[in-house]
Amino acid sequence: MISPDWPAPAWVKGLMTTRQGGVSVAPWASLNLGDHVGDDPAHVAANRARLRRQLPAEPGWLRQVHSARVVELGRDANLEADASFTRQTGRVCAVLTADCLPVLFCDRAGSVVAAAHAGWRGLAGGVLEATVTAMKVAPDNVLVWMGAAIGPRAFEVGEDVREVFVSQHPQAANAFLPHPAFIHGKWLADIYQLARIRLEHLGVQAIYGGGRCTFNEADSFYSYRRDGRTGRMASLIWLEQAP
Question: What is the CATH number of the domain that holds 226?
Answer without folding.
Answer: 3.60.140.10
